[in-house]
Amino acid sequence: MGGVRRQARHGRRRRPDADAPRHAPPGARPARWAAVDCGSVTAEFAVVLPAVVAVALLLVGLTRTVAVSMRCQDAAAAVVRELVVTGGQTDAAAVARDVAGVDASVAVRRAQDRVTVNVTCPVLPGPLGVLPAQVSGEAVGVAP
């Protein structure tokens, strides 16, 4: 083969990084990048946190609005039921307040044999006015 002789390995000095893999694993960054990325997680968290809080507040507000709306509709149905059963001899506002709370307002309309009740309930408004300030429920009953 040619006259070139290879030198024995045991006599040579080894590099300190000789045992390191030649290619870094996927996603690994060289050490020089680590100093540049210091604090990036904190910055990303600081940017995302207000959005997460805003979404959480919106969900809580929507849940409250739906709950008040359901109570308001239940109050309207209860008032109509009482008016039909007693023949109009009951206090509609008292029945509505028992079901929907003390802030509920009631409007009763009678037309021939029908009784229509509209109950309006206030909702704690959101900070940006996204949620409604009040909700209403309506029920119709037929008097015998």
From TrEMBL:
The chain crosses the membrane at residues 45-63. Residues 39-81 form the TadE-like domain. Residues 1-30 are annotated as: Disordered. The keyword Transmembrane applies. Keywords: Membrane, Transmembrane, Transmembrane helix. Residues 1-15 have a biased composition (Basic residues). It holds the Pfam family TadE. The keyword Cell division does not apply. This is Pilus assembly protein.
